[in-house]
Amino acid sequence: MASAAAAGAPPGPAAPRARRSVTGTRKAVAALFLLPALVLLGALVVYPIGYSLVRSFYDNSGDGFAGADNYKTLFTDDGIRTALKNNIIWVVFAPTVSTALGLVFAVLTERVRWGTAFKLVVFMPMAISMLAAGIIFRLVYDQDPHKGVANAVWVGVHDTFAQSSAFPNAHPGRESPLVAQNGGFLTRATVHAGRPVALPLVGVAPDQLPGGAKKAVTARPEPGKVTGTTWQDFTRGKGVGRLGAPDPSELGYAGMRIEAVKDGKVVAATTAAGDGTFTLPASADGARLWLPAGNFKEPYNGVEWLGPALVTPAIIGAYVWMWAGFAMVLIAAGLAGVPRELLEAARVDGATEWQVFRKVTVPLLAPVLAVVTVTLMINVLKVFDLVYIIAPGSSQDDANVLALELYRKGFAEGRPGVASAIAVLLLVLVIPVMAFNIRRLRREVRR
Amino acid sequence: MRSRSSTIRTHRTLTPLAALLAGALALTACSGSGDKDKDKGGGEQTPSASTVSLPKLNGAHLEVAAVWTGAEQANFKKVLAEFEKRTGATVTFVPAQDPIINFLGSKIAGGQPPDVAMLPQPGAIKQAVQNKWAKPLGPDALKELRKNYSQGWQDIGTVGGTPYGVYYKAANKSLIWYNAKVFENAGAKEPKTWQDLLTAARAVYDSGVTPFSVPGADGWPLTDWFENVYLSQAGPEKYDQLAQHKIKWTDPSVKQALTTLAQIWGKKDYLAGGQDGALQTEFPASVTQTFTGGDQPKAAMVYEGDFVQVNIGETKAKVGTDAKVFPFPAVGSAAPVVSGGDAAVILKDSKAAQALATFLASPDAATIQAKLGGYLSPNRNVPVSAYPNAVQQKIAKALIASGDDFRFDMSDQAPQAFGGTPGKGEWKDLQDFLKNPADVAGAQAKLEKDAAAAYGSGS
C-alpha cells in the first residue's frame, strides 16, 4: 500500500506548480513530460480495455456484430457458471483465511524471541512464483501416498488406527466353490466333518502373501473335525494349473480367517496355518464356511484431494500457503503502529490476553485488515495459474474459475467474443473493490 | 494428439524434470547412434543418403515452426542440419505453442510467417488453406510425395484436390504396451482379439496384478481408446462419418463401442487405482507405473501410441525385453490402425521452402530421424532397418502394412472445442464415462450435445 500511496503522490505537488505557471511553455513542458506515461498507459491499459469491450459485442470471427449474445452466453454456459460459482467461493474464503492466519502469525510473532526468523519462513512462499507453487502443490496433493505428502500423512494416521488386510485383491477363480457376499466369500455347499474342504482363491501375488506363507497342501481328513485348505490357486508362469487343488508351488493363505456359519450365526472360527490348512471343531459340521470381508479389505488410499469435490478447497489451501505471509507482513507493520499504552492500559484494567486481542488489538488494526483483505480479493479474482497447474484434466472443469475459463474460451476453443465478455465481467467485478480501495487511500492521504 | 499431449505434459507437470529427462534421452539417443554419425562425418555416405536432388541455395534463409520440444526437437534439428549441409541454406527452428494454428495466426497477422510449419491435425491444414495461408506443393515436392507415400497419407494432406501437406512424422496409436515379466508370471499370451485381451486381463488379474493402467486425468488417451474400439467394431465408413459428425453420437454403433469399452473400464479391479484412481493418473505416470515395481507393478498393460517408449525411457525397463508391445486387438473383423501425424505445410512460397518440403518428403530426411529413435515415418521407402530396435521396426511395419486402411485420429479431426480441449467436449465426456461406465446412454447424450455445439459453431 505504501508504494501505491507513493505512486499516487507525485501528481499532487506537480499539479499546483502547473497551475502557478502562466506562460504556455510551462504547460507544454508538463504535457511533454506527461506524454510518455500517457502514451504507455493508453496503449497498454486503456486501449486493451476499450478493445475488449468492443470485441465482446462481436461474434467469434470478429466480423459480425453479435449484440448481447456473448453476454447471454455468460449466464447460460455451464463452464462459465461453474467458474462464477467457484470465483465466489474463492473471494469469500481465500482472502479471509489468509488474513486471519496472517493476523494470528503477526500477533504471535510479536511475542516470540525468534519472531523475525519465523516471519521470514512464513513469508518465504511469496518469493516463489505461482507456477512453481502450483507444481509443488500438485505433488503435495498427489493421490499416491508414496508421492503426495498430504496423503502420506493422512494414510499414516488412518493406518495407525485401522490396519489393512493381507489379501486385498483375492477373489474366486474360475468354477470356484465360493460366491461373493457382503465383501466376503461364502461356500456354495455345506461342509462336513471328515471331508477336507478346498477354498481356492486367486489374485494375490506370491511375494505379497504374508511372510509365514508356505507351500499349500491338501488337508488330511480328521474324524469329527472339519478340515480344509485355503490357498492361492495360481502357479506363477503357468496359470491356474490344476483347478481346485494345490499345485506344488502354490502358497497357502497364511492367517486367513475362516468362520463356520449356520443359520446366519457363527458357530466356529479359526485362522489358516502357513500352508493354508485349517481345522474346525465338530460343531462346524453342516455349516457353510465364510471368509469374512475383513480378510479382503483394500488398503486405504487416502483422500482424493484433487477429485471433483475437494479440488477447489485444496487449491485455496495452496493459495493461503503463499499469501498468508504477505498478510502477516502488512499486519505486523500495522501492529507496530498500535500505541502500546492502550494495550498496557487494558492489561492493567484486568483484561485477559484474549480480551486484549479481541477488544483492543483487532479494532485498532481494522483499517489494515480491511486493506489486506480487499487487496487479496482483487488478487483472488484474477487467480489463474494455481488452478491451471494444480487441477488435473479430469477435474479442471470442477475447479474452473473465470480467468481460466477466459483462457480456455479464447485460446483453446477459439471463441474470442465470449472470452472478451468474460474479461469485461471480471473488470466489472473488480471495479467496486478497486473503488473501495481508492477511497480508502484518499482518506488515508488526507489524514 | 501426440504433439499436443507432449506440450501439455511438459507445461503442466514437472517441467524442469521433464527437460532433464528429455536431455538425458537425447544424450542416450546420440550416444546410441554416434558411430553411424561418425561414419557419415567421415565422408562415407550411406546408400540412401542421396535419393533426392536438391538445388544449391547458398544465402537462403528459412524458418520452420513446430510444437516439438526436448529430444524430438533436437532430433529434428539434426535433419535440418543435413538439409543445410546439402543446400547451403540456413534453417532456423521456431518453437511454437499449441494450438499451432493460433500461433501461426498471430505470426501471420504480424507479417512474419515461418516459411514452413509442421501442422499436427488435418483440420489445421484445412484451416490454413481456407485462410489462404498455405501454399500448394511444387512439382519437385509432389514428385517425392507420389513416390514415397501411400494414397491415404497423400489424401489427408490434400485440401480441395490440391496437395498442401507432406506428412513427415506419423504416430501409430493402436498399440498396447505390456510388462513382459507380468505376462510371463501370469502365463498370459499376446492377444489377437478383444476376447483374448479379456482372457489375458483375467489371467493377469488372477496372478495378482491389476491388468490396465488408464490415464484418465488426461482426456486424449480416453478418446484414443474409444477410437480403436470404434474403428475395429463399426468399420472405417462409420468411423469417417462419425469423425465428420454425419452420424450422431447417439448412434447404436457408438453404444456398442462404449458397452465394449465398459467391459474393461467398468471393472474397478481391472484399472490401476480403480476408476477414481485412473482419473487422477496422468499419461506419463500411467506408463511409468506399468514398468516400475519389478514383478508387482501397479498395472500390467498400458494403451497408447508408439511415443509411449519415450516415457518408458524414464524407467529402468528396456523396450523390447522388459516392455513389449502388441497391436490393438481386433474388436470386430479387423484390427484397427489409428494414426496421428505432423505434416509440413509451406506458408511462404520460395525455392528454398519448396526444396525443404521436397527434402522432408524424401526417405533421406526420415531415415536420419528414424535412426535417432522415438520417431515413426509414414514414408514407405524408409528402410525398416533404419529404426533402432525390433519394437520400433514392428510398429513401423504395422503402420506401413496398413496401407490405406489406417484412419487418422478422430478427435484430431474434430473441432478443437470438442476433440482437443482439456476438461471439455469429448475429453470430459469420456472422463465422465470412465467415472460411471454403467451410464452408456447418458454418455452418448452428453457427447452428442457437445459435438452438436462444436461442429455447429464451425470453429
What are the defining features of this structure?
heterodimer, A: 447 residues, alpha+beta, MetI-like fold, three-stranded mixed β-sheet, 53% helix, 9% strand, B: 459 residues, alpha/beta, D-Maltodextrin-Binding Protein, domain 2, 2 domains, six-stranded mixed β-sheet, 22 helices, Sugar ABC transporter substrate-binding protein (chain B)
Walk me through what this model shows.
- The complex is a heterodimer of chains A (447) and B (459).
- Among the domains of chain A are: 77-154 and 305-414, MetI-like fold (Orthogonal Bundle), CATH 1.10.3720.10; 178-296, no CATH class.
- Chain A is 53% helix and 9% strand.
- Chain A has helices at residues 2-8, 11-20, 24-55, 69-76, 78-109, 115-123, 130-140, 149-161, 311-336, 340-348, 353-381, 385-390, 396-399, 402-412, 416-446; strands at residues 178-181, 184-187, 197-201, 226-232, 257-262, 265-271, 277-280, 288-291.
- Chain A has a 5-stranded antiparallel beta sheet with strand order 1-2-8-5-6, with no helix packed on it.
- Chain B has helices at residues 2-12, 15-41, 70-87, 100-109, 122-130, 139-148, 151-155, 180-186, 194-207, 220-234, 236-243, 252-265, 274-279, 283-288, 308-312, 351-361, 363-372, 390-401, 410-413, 416-419, 425-435, 440-457; strands at 61-66, 90-95, 116-119, 158-159, 162-163, 165-172, 175-179, 212-213, 301-303, 323-327, 338-346, 407-408.
- In chain B, 58% of the residues are buried.
- The radius of gyration of chain B is 22 Å and the shape is globular.
- In chain B, helix 3 links the parallel strand 1 (61-66) and strand 2 (90-95).
- Residues 1-48 of chain B have low confidence and may be disordered.
- The chains are: A alpha+beta (447), B alpha/beta (459).
- At the A-B interface, helix 7 and helix 14 of A face helix 8, helix 9, helix 13 and helix 21 of B.
